Amino acid sequence: AQKITQTQPGMFVQEKEAVTLDCTYDTSDPSYGLFWYKQPSSGEMIFLIYQGSYDQQNATEGRYSLNFQKARKSANLVISASQLGDSAMYFCAMREGSGAGSYQLTFGKGTKLSVIP
Amino acid sequence: NAGVTQTPKFRILKIGQSMTLQCTQDMNHNYMYWYRQDPGMGLKLIYYSVGAGITDKGEVPNGYNVSRSTTEDFPLRLELAAPSQTSVYFCASSPDRGHEQYFGPGTRLTVT
């Protein structure tokens, strides 16, 4: 079974609108972290936001927020007031555990977001 | 700070050739990682290091080797290049395993 599932290969959003990118995860470890990265067409990986499994509140960073629903094992990224520069690939990733071997980030296949003027 | 730097940016190898991808970070991070990204896919971990002299395998280590003699440098060695190693390679670092990883700009490698 895939550990990180991003079901939306591509999404379109109108400029200035909000958009939600879906991410579901699969782990039996009670300690884990969830990350979102942005990859523009230039190729670099840009960290956006982090949510720990024990965090009580949903993470927010500027226009990015993470809708964390632990029971449903989902960690959706919400981008408010979309801008043309938000057009990129977005990857959800998970780090499991806190012991030896918990260094790896497991990535989903990504969602390509296109912002329409 | 330059962050994480990688060289070269692009490289074409013939089957059977060897090369070393260079990675350097100036953030004094203990943890460093090598990932590969195949077309249309997310990143997969090749090797990682938790400090100078300590390395371990990730999800897809076959065909690669690493070393970590200093905190700053984490080179990735490809021996006997194969077409299956055509990919984009990313180096990353983090201050510890709980933090986000900071990525370099990537090296696009083609093996023909």
How do you describe this structure in short?
The complex is a heterodimer of chains A (117) and B (112). Chain A has strands at residues 4-5, 10-14, 19-21, 24-25, 32-39, 46-52, 60-61, 64-69, 74-79, 88-96, 106-107, 111-116. Chain A is mainly beta.
How would you explain this protein's 3D organization?
The complex is a heterodimer of chains A (117) and B (112). Chain A has strands at 4-5, 10-14, 19-21, 24-25, 32-39, 46-52, 60-61, 64-69, 74-79, 88-96, 106-107, 111-116. In chain A, strands 2, 5, 6, 10, 11 and 12 form a six-stranded mixed β-sheet that branches. In chain A, strands 3-9-8-7 form a four-stranded antiparallel β-sheet, with no helix packed on it. Chain A has a two-stranded antiparallel sheet with strand order 1-4. In chain A, 0% of the residues lie in helices and 50% in strands. By secondary structure, chain A is an all-beta fold. By secondary structure, chain B is mostly beta strands. Chain B has strands at residues 4-7, 10-13, 19-25, 31-37, 43-51, 54-57, 64-66, 76-78, 87-94, 102-103, 107-111. In chain B, the strands form two sheets. In chain B, strands 2, 4, 5, 6, 9, 10 and 11 form a seven-stranded mixed β-sheet that branches. A four-stranded antiparallel β-sheet of chain B has the order 1-3-8-7, with no helix packed on it. Chain B is globular, with a radius of gyration of 13 Å. Classes of the chains: A mainly beta (117), B mainly beta (112). Chain A binds chain B through residues 4, 33, 35, 37, 43-47, 50, 52, 91, 93, 95, 98, 102-110, and chain B through 31, 33, 40-45, 48, 50, 58-59, 88, 90, 92, 97-98, 100-106, 108.
Strand and helix map with partners:
The complex is a heterodimer of chains A (117) and B (112).
Chain A: E1 4-5, E2 10-14, E3 19-21, E4 24-25, E5 32-39, E6 46-52, E7 60-61, E8 64-69, E9 74-79, E10 88-96, E11 106-107, E12 111-116
Parallel strand pairs in A: 2-12
Antiparallel strand pairs in A: 1-4, 3-9, 5-6, 5-10, 7-8, 8-9, 10-11, 10-12
Chain B: E1 4-7, E2 10-13, E3 19-25, E4 31-37, E5 43-51, E6 54-57, E7 64-66, E8 76-78, E9 87-94, E10 102-103, E11 107-111
Parallel strand pairs in B: 2-11
Antiparallel strand pairs in B: 1-3, 3-8, 4-5, 4-9, 5-6, 7-8, 9-10, 9-11
